[in-house]
Each structure stands twice: as C-alpha cells, then as structure tokens.
Design brief:
By secondary structure, the protein is an alpha/beta fold. It is built from twelve helices and 13 strands. It has helices at 10-30, 54-64, 80-86, 106-115, 125-142, 158-165, 180-192, 196-205, 214-217, 220-232, 253-261, 317-337; strands at residues 2-6, 35-41, 44-47, 74-76, 91-94, 119-122, 146-147, 171-177, 244-245, 264-272, 276-284, 295-302, 306-313. A hairpin with a 3-residue loop joins strand 10 (264-272) and strand 11. The model has no long low-confidence stretch (mean pLDDT 94).
Length: 339
C-alpha cells in the first residue's frame, strides 16, 4: 500500500517510528505492507515511488530540519497539492496543524486527495469541525474511505467504540472530558491551591499547553471533538457553529474550592444531547468521569445498555500514531473484503 504523508511534525514522525517498529508484525497479521512514497513538510517534499527509507527520513528531519534536503530524494518548495496530483498512492495521511478558522491547509489537502481517488486518514480536527458532513459525502461520492479516529481521544478507540462496538444499540447522549490540557490545569488548581494563570504556566512548561493555549482553554478543541462524534457516531449533520462553547479561562480558584466543599470537582465537559455544548460543570468526585491530570474520559449513554465509559490518555505523538495505524489497518481490511 503506497502512502503519501502530509505533515512531518510530532505526529508524522511518531507514525514513521511506530510503522518501523511494527512493520513485520502488521505485514504478517494483516497482509499490510505500507510504502511511504512521499512526505511533505513546510520546506518541501521527499519522494521515492519505490518507498522512502523511513529511518533515514527521520534522521534527515532531525539533522537538516526538512526532508526536502534528503539528497536526491528531496524536492524543496514542492507543495502538497502537487504531490497529491503527481504521485501514485492509495492512501494520504494528513497530519498538518489544526486550523479551526479556515481549516487550511488540511481542508484542501483532504478534498484534493479524495477527488484524486485516494483514501484519507487524518488527525486534523479543523477540517472535520468545519466541514465533516460535506467531506463524508465527498468521500462516498468518490468511492474512498475517510478515517479520523486519532482526532478524538488520541490512541483511545473512542470513535470505534461508539461506531462499531455499540452498533446494536442506539446512542442517545455522549458526555466527557475530551481535553487533557484543561483537565491538567483544573487538577493543578485544586490540588496545589493555585490560580488559573499559574496552572496554565505549568502546563505550558511541561508541553501540555501551547504558547497560544486558546484552542484548549477556550473550549474549541473539545467542541471540535463533539462535532466529529455527533456526525460519525450519532448521524447528525453539524459543524462547529452548532456548538455552544464556554471554556475555563475565567475560572477562579475559589470556584473550585467551593465545588470541592460540596464533594464535587469542576471539569470542562463536552456533551451531546438535545444540544451540543462545552462548558465547565460540577461533577461529583464519585462520578466515573471525574478523572484527573491529563486523562480523558468519555461516557456513552445508550438506549438499552445504559452508560459505558472509556478512560485513557487522550493525546501524545505515539498514541495518536497508533490511531493512524488502526485506521490504516481498517482501510486495508475493508478493501480486502471487496475482493
């Protein structure tokens, strides 16, 4: 299976490391023998239609800053659009940074890939939050698969659990802690008795929060994940504009202490019910959703089975890379069923 990789940051590099580590295993178990025929980063592209040496690409990225400098395989200034159009491949893996304003460059990358008849795997929440219903229709029209399990819960199989494992039941509501950064900040505030800005600084120092943390602390990251779950699992046709969003930026330590006195904790909760909403809520400390640190927790409420909760680490390079590999195996398995 020939693969084009768009984006070569933490997630893209982690995917190559995981693929190198597990190559023989997935070839044996699933008959999947991936070849990375092109990689695109901000400096250009590296291309070899026989398959790039993954370990060498990782080393070039580390030492040279861009895989476009990879000797005779490198093509400075070659764009993702040109690579998608020129290079023969079955799958495009799109892992460029999230942009929730325009969805770019991910949105155009995904659209171009689908229109060229390539299956797409993405971890990019921006295009899905803004245009998932349209992208799903486009993929169906072009007869290709669009997969994105790494966009919700990192390595946690949140989308697979809701879409596949609970297929015999009707999911009527979803709620959960879907952002590890905000959960860490709220945990630090109450445990260390520090105000929001100090807890945010600690999160940034540890690499949990970006220099501009607005995507996390203002609730947009959680909102994007709700849109993806609402469309993929519950069959709704919604985008980011349909979500009511309220983050944690204005929470004070006193708010958390008052909740603590009542046996509760304040958590940033995303919920899908009659409305789709993100906001800080008081959660009983005895509630299974009341996880701490960087953990995520998602509860599915189904018509007959009741409540089922998945807890785990919701982010991280290798965790997200494992979701990409899961999607790749899923595509391979579905393609095999057709023959």
């Amino acid at each position: 299976m020939r693969i084009i990789l768009l984006g070569f940051g933490v997630v893209g590099q982690s995917f190559l490391k995981l693929l190198t580590h597990r190559y023989n295993e997935i070839a044996s178990f699933y008959g999947l023998k991936p070849r990375i025929v092109a990689i695109v980063d901000r400096g250009g592209a590296a291309i070899d239609e026989r398959g790039l040496d993954m370990e060498k690409m990782l080393e070039f990225k580390k030492t040279m800053g861009s895989i476009s400098k990879a000797n005779d395989k490198g093509f400075p200034d070659l764009t993702a659009e040109e690579v998608i159009k020129k290079i023969d491949a079955e799958v495009v893996i799109e892992v460029t940074p999230t942009n929730i304003i325009s969805g770019e460059p991910g949105l155009t990358n995904i659209e171009n890939s689908i229109k060229s008849g390539k299956h797409v795997i993405t971890t990019n929440k921006g295009p899905l939050a803004l245009a998932l219903p349209a992208l799903m229709d486009l993929a169906e029209y072009n007869g290709v698969y669009l997969r994105f399990s790494g966009t919700v819960g990192g390595g946690m199989p949140v989308l697979d659990l809701g879409k596949k494992c609970l297929i015999a039941d009707k999911i009527i509501a979803i709620r959960g802690i879907l952002n590890g950064t905000t959960n860490y900040i709220l945990t630090e505030m109450i445990e260390k008795r520090i105000e929001f800005n100090e807890a945010l600084k600690k999160a940034q120092d540890l690499g949990y929060a970006e220099k501009d943390p607005s995507l996390d602390i203002d609730g947009f990251d959680t909102a994007c994940k709700l849109v993806i779950m609402a469309n993929w699992i519950m069959g709704k046709k919604v985008t980011l504009k349909d979500v009511k969003i309220n983050g944690i930026r204005n929470l004070a330590l006193k708010d958390l202490i008052d909740a603590d006195k009542n046996g509760n904790a304040i958590k940033l909760i995303g919920s899908i019910n009659k409305n789709i909403e993100v906001k800080p809520r008081e959660v009983s400390k005895r509630d299974i959703l009341c996880v701490h640190g960087t953990l995520n927790a998602v509860t599915f409420v189904s018509e007959f089975a009741g409540e089922e909760t998945l807890i785990g680490r919701g982010a991280g390079g290798m965790e997200t890379a494992s979701a990409i590999l899961r999607d790749l195996i899923d595509i391979k398995t579905n393609l095999s069923k057709k023959f």
